[in-house]
Structures are given as C-alpha cells and as structure tokens.
Amino acid sequence: MKGTEKKEKKARKKSVFKTILKVVGIVLLAIILIAVGYFAYVFIQYHRIPDNQVLSVQNPKSERAEMEKEYRMVSFNIGFGAYEQDFGFFMDGGDRAWAWSKERLNKNLEKINAFIGKEEAEFFLIQEVDFDSTRTYHVDERPGLAAALSAKTYTFAQNWDSAFLFAPPTQPHGTARTGIMTFSDFHIESSLRRSLPLETGIMKIVDLDRCYSVNRIPTASGPELVVYNVHLSAYTSDGKIAEEQLRMMVADMQAEYEKGNFCIAGGDLNKDLSGDAVKYFGTSAGDYTWAQPIPESIFMGSNVKLVFPYDETKKTPSCRNADGPWTHDPLTQYVLTVDGFLVTDNVEILKADVIDTDFMFSDHNPVEIRFILHGAK
Predict the structure, then answer these.
(1) What is the rounded CA–CA span in Å between residue 363 and residue 223?
(2) Residue 261 phi/psi, 5° resolution?
(3) Tens-digit pLDDT profile for residues 314-338
(4) Which of 15, 56, 99, 311 makes a 20 to 30 Å CA pair with 195?
C-alpha cells in the first residue's frame, strides 16, 4: 500500500513538473513570437518621407531682403517642449521618454513661445517641433509657435514619422512625428524638403528620418538668400553619418553660391562645433560618439564655412547631455555647442553667440548670428 502511495505521489510530482515546464515553454514561446512580431512590424512599417517634397509657405509676405543691411537669425532646438531642467531623456542615459505630463508640457511650451516672441530677429529656425507624437501627448506644437511669430511667414518640414517604438518598456517612446519650422520677415518664394542620407542598419529605426529645408528668399537686388534649416543625426552607431549629411548640404550650398546666391544654414548639427568641448567648457566627453568634431575636409574646395557661436567672456554652451536633471556644472554633466551655422563667403558674420537660457525650456540654448549680405562691388 505504501509503495503504491509513493508511486502515485511521484507520478503527481512528475505531472506537476511537466505542467510547469509546459506553461513556461508556452510563455517563452509567446514572448518570442511577440518580440519577432514586433520587430517585423517595426521594419515593415519603416518608411522614409519623400525627398524633394515641396513645402507650403504660410502667411506669405511681399518684402524682400536687402544688401548691405544687418539682419539677425536665431536657431533653437526646443527639445519637443519636454526638456525642463529636471528632465533626463532615456537615449542620453536619463529615465524619461515622454514629457512629465501634458499640463507641464503645455506650460513649458507657453514659456518657449513667450521667449521666442520677445526675441527681435528677422529669421527663426526651430527644430524638434512635435505634432501627434506619443511623447508629447499628441499635442500639436506648431500653432503656438506660429502665433508667437505671427508677423512672419513660415514653412514646416516633417523630419520624423516613426512606427511605435516600444522602448523603454516602462514608458514606450511610441510614435514620433516632428519637424522643423523656418520663419522669415521676408517673402519666401519657395521651400523644399531634402531627405538626408541615413544608416542602413538597425540604427535607422532609432534615429528615425532626417532632412533639411531649403527656403528661397528673393533679395531686392536680384540674387536669392537661400536659408537652410537642419537637424542632423545623433543616435547612430559611430556618429559618422552626420558627416555624410553635412557633405550633401555643403555641396548644395556651394552650387547655389556658384549661381550667385547667398546661403545660410542653421540648426542642430549634432557635432562638437568647437572641435574640443573640454578646452572651451572644461567638460568631459566620456563615450559620447555623437559629439565628434566636424572634419575640415568637409569644407575643402568650397566657399562654405562653419560659424561657431561663442563668446569668450561668457563661454556658454548650446547643449547639455540629458542623462539626468541639469546640474549647472560642466564638470558633472557634459556640455558642448552643437547648434550653429554654415554660410557662404558672400555673407559677412558680425556676431555669433549662444543665448543663455540656462537650459530652462530645453536641453539646448538658442544660438544667433548677425549678418550682412554683400552685393557686387
């Protein structure tokens, strides 16, 4: 009798063990199928926004830019309105993918719009303007900026249009739809979206799409002022793709220069524009592959030059690494200048500087140039 009970007990244990193994196997299989299905979905959904897309010009103006007159241009990556001083982004080492809340997002956007509205400049180049994105609670950030600069004509080029990204798992980044806005006091004859080259591997999924807009502004003397608004790649395998992107834009600018036009490109270049952030800001670069200097070879043989916004008396960087809240100390948090300008030789730069907002609204500070277009002598 006892032997029979032992056999039955052993059989029950064996049955329970088999059931547990079966359940674990089913769960693991389900996880694998979900993971495979998700990656298949991401790659199937992946697409690029069409190149050479004609952009509409909103609130058109008739005024034309003039020769030998001083103008001011401001470029600002607003960080999709989420980067308050206590914000850290997950892809920079922080723990956030979304803005803190819809309410805080809207309040921060109000501050950004108020700041921009008070700046006196003929041109504004704005990057990371979200609409219908998970991370910004599907708030359309374009109308607020347009209202803040209501006296200006403007264009919008969509930069990203991604599938739902399930990272980080605790707060998935979701879909991202964002772009760049270009504002002008002067008539924009036409505007075009140019797609930039991207990596071909898996990193193209996290870096999304990239572009620059080409905005043609007639001058009173005949030639055009061609304004480029750009946001180059950051989250790539080795940071080299942004160099290819720069080469494409420089070649475009050179061709326009040879036609007799004036060219200014501005935006977030995602490169160490100083060439050595440690020297200029006393910071430590660590392993940040996206923060590489721009090779001089990119400009060789061209009439295009880099304008590094910097004032020796203030030493203000344009960007902080958002691996956590802003520490106000470059020794404990990496800072550098990635925002700046490229200009052709017929554009004289009178001033190039960073506007110190102490990263109050974004992980970027705005940058500015004051310039003159020189006519034929």
Answers:
(1) 37
(2) -90, 160
(3) 999 999 999 999 999 888 899 999 9
(4) 99
Q: Which two tokens stand for residue 124?
A: 């504004």
Both tokens assigned to 176:
């991202």
CA neighbor of 188 nearest in space, from 212, 218, 213: 218
241-244 contacts, C-beta under 8 A, 24 or more apart:
241/197, 241/198, 241/199, 241/207, 242/269, 242/270, 242/271, 242/290, 243/294, 243/295, 243/298, 244/197
Do 201 and 73 belong to one domain? Answer: yes
Separation CA 355–CA 75 (nearest Å): 10
Looking at the structure of the chain, the number of domains it has is: 2
Q: Are 212 and 265 in contact (CB under 8 A)?
A: yes
Residue range(s) defining the domain that contains residue 4: 1-45
- If we measure between CA atoms, which residue out of 338, 344, 358 comes closest to residue 75? 338
In a shared domain, residues 247 and 273: yes
H or E stretch including 363? none
| Beta-bridge mates of residue 335 | 320
Q: Is 56 helix (H, G, I), strand (E, B) or coil?
A: coil
Instruction: Tell me: do 32 and 181 sit in the same domain.
Output: no
The confidence score (pLDDT) of residue 43 equals 55
Q: Are residues 27 and 60 in the same domain?
A: no
Residues 278 and 182 in one domain: yes
Pair 20, 72 in one domain:
no
Residue 316: which CATH number?
3.60.10.10
The two tokens of residue 244 are 């290819």
Which pLDDT belongs to residue 354? 98
